[in-house]
Design a protein that fits this description.
- The complex is a heterodimer of chains A (445) and B (327).
- With 445 residues, chain A is α+β, with helices and mostly antiparallel strands.
- Chain A contains ten helices and 18 strands.
- In chain A, the strands form five sheets. Chain A has a six-stranded mixed beta sheet. In chain A, strands 1-8-6-3 form a four-stranded antiparallel beta sheet, with no helix packed on it.
- In chain A, a hairpin with a 4-residue loop joins strand 10 and strand 11.
- Chain A is globular.
- Classes of the chains: A alpha+beta (445), B alpha/beta (327).
- At the A-B interface, helix 3 of A face loops of B.
Chain lengths: 445, 327
């Protein structure tokens, strides 16, 4: 008996996924736990393994498709089995999500695309298809892809959406409906702009302006955009900066690395620690001493965490991810160094599991390697604060009555003053400065 | 303000109105010497004597008909049934006399009558004693039907009912009698008929309920809040007349509605509310109006099956998820 495979939930917050590659082709025999496809979710690329055994009879969505949770992606069954009923018979049946916008568009047309055109603008998620209406007893087993009006030319939208469409001048034909049978519901209008009128589109005559290169949003980009907007729009940000003397820390770091090199076994690559590794540990100690900085705001109460789990921002080609180093206060600097490197490596390979990027209590973002001296970072909700770290600067410093070569380090704390009041943030930075300028304390915790 | 149980609030309303107007009297089974089957009328016989607090024989049709006659000639009776289930044997009196005589007499007769009793499910009282009778009576023009959830509303609405010149049916609940709440002491405090109340503000969905289901809806709303869903709860209080303005205002704000009530779904008051919403707030709806009701079967006696058939918070939450397209 053939069975339709529906896209399962591969991460806790996943609502849709992009099938980045199929590892099986039609006709292949499938066993339980066989890798079927790679699915790019909002957090990471996940492996989609089979829960069933049989023969892969049909792939319903091509690679590159964005698929809603629960939407059919493939059919498995016995070889030669008639699947026309499941596949929708006449061909109009199973939802056919389009490949992402860039692929859908013939390459030669790109330059000629008028700037005001309705096609890939990044605003209208024209590639999402409706989720299967699970548990909706009267829904047919298949449904039309949403963005296009259905075969009878009707756009299915809730009355409230139609009212909003009239009021805001929205073109509902370009909206992907996520309700039952592709119905456009209020949430589908979030972020939608009014349809360009003929007059508005006129000045941008084709040929006068070169069309921009269109880069469709990856799942990760979408998640980052959503999270950053949410943070900056809903979390008040308050910034505190300090400039610490990094000479003692530099001396300690060199001493540690020299000792590690001297004592490494023959032929073994000695481990090394960085300014950042020492800073992560120093922050953990400071958070234990100033727990109000290790806190989270909720509408009813302030949550003071009893764990020190530090999110470390890692730049990856797709954007930014924040793997979490757990219980940093209870770990040795060397272990922290190894763990940060291991997490960063897997982050760049997009192999982090979603839970490894969730539930941090404080964040550190370091742009020192890009030559940045100082910056203010965006708080990573629901955390209450984030430390932005610049480069360690070589510059003349005053010691006693002498100007001598020295090292300075700019650190900026962004705090959510609803939980981390200015004075609390300042206390945290004072403790952090003491640790960094008397760094053996970092080692003895 | 005094904190009173629901049953004490009902009693306070009757006592105050009987003190205010000597034409008001109380009749029913066990209202006097036994102090009320659910102790709602406790102490009233001693206070007002047996001419105004009358123990009736087990003849609902008889004492309902006599009270309609008394109302026709100027008295203002309060009739207590042991439960609304037993009003079924007085249905002909209520339908054909109480509801009709004012209109059939061209306004020469008025029927200032209050019928009151506990309504809806209790705990394992069987299918014949678990009816939600408001749906039957709200169907009938000429009757007014009230179903308050809170002690203060019970007092204020019952006083309004007693002062009203038309037959008013007042739905209490066995499982609400012990509920406590602040109740105004002022003998002039009344709650007007036909005015709903917002018992909880919210932005994502309107849950419209009455009587005991308001409390279940509050429970559901607290759960939904944990998921980040903000539910507004409209307590209708009065089912006929119906405050469609408050309902429409709420749905205009939230764009989604779930009606929660005890009693069967087919042709019930919930269907009436859904009709008002789709008719008066069509352009505001982002999803069909759904109902969380008692299942469409006679009430089972088995305790677990009974709890399954009665709407619980989980059934409301499930319907809220559906109107938010979250299931």
């Amino acid at each position: 008996m053939a069975k339709v495979l529906e896209l399962p939930k591969l991460s806790p917050t996943m609502e849709e996924g992009q099938i980045s590659a199929w590892h099986k082709k039609e006709g292949d025999t499938i066993d339980i736990d066989d890798l079927l496809a790679d699915v790019e979710t909002d957090k990471a690329t996940m492996e989609y393994k089979s829960f069933d055994r049989g023969t892969l009879l049909k792939i319903l969505v091509p690679p590159g498709s964005v698929v809603q949770l629960g939407q059919p992606v493939a059919i498995i069954g016995n070889p030669g089995e008639d699947i026309s009923a499941l596949a929708g018979g006449s061909g109009g049946g199973a939802p056919a999500p389009q490949p992402s916008a860039a692929e859908a568009q013939p390459k030669g047309d790109r330059a000629a695309q008028p700037a005001g055109g309705a096609a890939p603008s990044g605003e209208a998620p024209a590639t999402t298809a409706p989720p299967a209406a699970r548990g909706d007893a009267v829904s047919p087993p298949t449904q039309p892809a949403a963005p296009q009006p259905s075969s009878d030319g009707r756009v299915k939208a809730s009355p409230y959406v139609r009212k909003l469409g009239r009021e805001r001048g929205l073109d509902l034909t370009s909206v992907a409906g996520t309700g039952p049978r592709g119905r456009i519901v209020a949430r589908d209008l979030e972020g939608l702009k009014p349809a360009p009128t003929a007059a508005a589109a006129a000045p941008a005559a084709p040929g006068e302006l070169a069309a921009p290169e269109v880069r469709p949003l990856s799942m990760m980009r979408k998640a980052i955009a959503r999270r950053l907007t949410e943070s900056k729009q809903t979390v008040p940000h308050f910034y505190l900066s300090i400039d610490v003397d990094a000479d003692p820390l530099n001396a300690l770091r060199e001493q540690i690395n020299a000792d590690l090199a001297a004592t490494a076994a023959e032929g073994e690559k000695p481990p090394k620690i960085s300014f950042n590794d020492l800073l992560v540990k120093a922050c953990a100690i400071a958070l234990v001493r100033v727990p109000e900085c290790n806190a989270q705001f909720t509408s009813d109460a302030i949550l003071i965490h009893r764990r020190v789990d530090i999110s470390v921002a890692v730049a990856v080609p797709e954007g930014l991810v924040t793997p979490v180093v757990r219980d940093v206060d209870r770990k040795q600097v060397l272990d922290i160094a190894a763990e940060v490197r291991e997490l960063a490596g897997r982050a760049k390979a997009k192999k982090l599991r979603p839970e490894e990027m969730a539930n941090g209590t404080f964040s550190i973002s370091n742009l020192g390697m890009y030559g940045i001296d100082n910056f203010g970072a965006v708080i990573n909700p629901p955390e209450g604060a984030i430390l932005a770290v610049g480069q360690v600067r070589r510059e003349p410093v005053v010691r006693g009555e002498q100007v001598v070569p020295g090292r300075r380090w700019g650190l900026t704390l962004s705090c959510d003053p609803r939980v981390v009041a200015g004075a609390v943030g300042a206390t945290f930075l004072k403790v952090l400065r003491q640790l960094l300028e008397h760094p053996t304390q970092i080692l003895i915790g | 303000m005094t904190v009173l149980r629901y049953r004490e609030a009902v009693r306070a309303a009757m006592i105050e109105e009987m003190e205010r107007d000597e034409r008001v009297y109380l009749v029913g089974e066990e209202v006097g010497h036994y102090q009320g089957a659910y102790k709602v009328t406790e102490g009233m016989l001693d206070k007002f004597g047996s001419r105004r607090v009358i123990d009736a024989p087990i003849t609902e049709s008889g004492f309902t008909g006599i009270s309609i006659g008394a109302a026709m000639v100027g008295l203002r009776p309060i009739v207590e049934y042991m439960t609304w289930n037993f009003s079924a044997v007085a249905f002909d009196q209520i339908l054909n006399n109480a509801a009709k005589l004012r209109q059939m007499s061209g306004g020469q007769l008025t029927i200032p009558l209050v019928l009151r009793a506990p309504n809806g499910s209790a705990r394992q009282v069987g299918s014949q004693h678990s009816h939600s009778m408001e749906h039957f009576y709200a169907h009938i023009p000429g009757l007014k039907v009230l179903a308050p959830a809170m002690p203060a509303d019970a007092k204020g609405l019952l006083k309004s009912a007693i002062r009203d010149d038309n037959p008013v049916l007042f739905m209490e609940s066995e499982t609400l009698y012990g509920v406590k709440g602040e109740v105004p002491d002022d003998p002039d405090f009344i709650v007007p008929l036909g005015v709903a109340s917002i018992v909880r503000e919210g932005t994502d969905v309107s849950i419209i309920a009455w009587s005991r289901m308001v409390h279940v809806a509050l429970e559901a709303a607290a759960e939904l809040e944990k998921e980040g869903i903000s539910a507004e709860i409209v307590d209708l209080r009065s089912l006929r007349p119906l405050d469609e303005e408050t309902v429409v205002r709420s749905v205009t704000k939230t764009h989604r509605a779930v009606v929660a009530h005890e009693g069967w779904p087919y042709g019930g008051v919930g269907a009436e509310v859904a009709d008002r919403i789709q008719r008066l707030a069509f352009d505001e709806l982002d999803a069909p109006v759904l109902r969380a009701t008692t299942l469409d079967v006679p009430m089972p006696y088995n305790a677990r099956l009974e709890q399954y058939v009665i709407p619980q918070a989980a059934r409301i939450i499930e319907n809220v998820h559906r109107v938010l397209y979250k299931s």
